[in-house]
Specification:
binds adenosine monophosphate; alpha+beta; five-stranded antiparallel beta sheet; 5 strands; single chain; HIT family, subunit A
Amino acid sequence: MSDVTESIFSRIIQRELPADILYEDDVCIVINDIAPQAPVHMLVVPKKPIPRLVDADTDDQILLGHLMLVAGDMARKFGVDEAFRLVVNNGADAGQTFFHLHLHVLAKAKDTAGFSESDITN
Ligand code: AMP
């Protein structure tokens, strides 16, 4: 795990780095992914810097549920709640590059019905 990559989401949360922040509350922020893999590609990032999903424990149960609810709310806000994917990469071999837990919310744009695996590469 790299301290450099681990700190990037924390630095965005602290407003030390710029990002397209779509939503924020006491527990998490939602930002647009800088390199979107789908027309809608947001990241739901907890303020607590849990490195990987497997590093979460029972104390994080409410936090994890909150992230899921925010993901659903954001999908609703973007009009893609009928068809979106939620992805969590856990570990480098699974494609995780930033070791600060985050949920990818991926969807086609609002006006396009449905999507297939080939539309989304993440
Ligand atoms: P993962 O590969 O699951 O760790 O996802 C990391 C994600 O962070 C990738 O989809 C990147 O495109 C995204 N990313 C990297 N830097 C930034 C940034 N500064 N702002 C927003 N998203 C970023």
